[in-house]
Design a protein that fits this description.
Elements lengths: L2 E6 L5 E5 L2 H6 L13 E4 L2 H7 L4
Antiparallel strand pairs: 1-2, 1-3
The protein binds zinc ion.
């Protein structure tokens, strides 16, 4: 079962979610495990993030 990482836009912490690819494609309802926020986005790791979404 793959693990996906989501980064919370409120507290900037990573929440790791273990789920199947199928469930992920159908849309996961991810909640930040640190602060309970729903304001999370998938986190692809530093290299990919730098390539696709340059951080300023
Ligand atoms: Zn959070």
């Amino acid at each position: 079962m793959p693990a996906y990482e989501y980064i919370c836009k409120d507290c900037k912490k990573i929440t790791e979610v273990n789920t199947s690819y199928e469930k992920k494609e159908k849309g996961l309802d991810v909640t930040c495990e640190h602060c309970g926020s729903k304001n999370v986005g998938q986190y692809f790791g530093n290299m990919t993030v730098t390539a696709t979404f340059p951080l300023h």
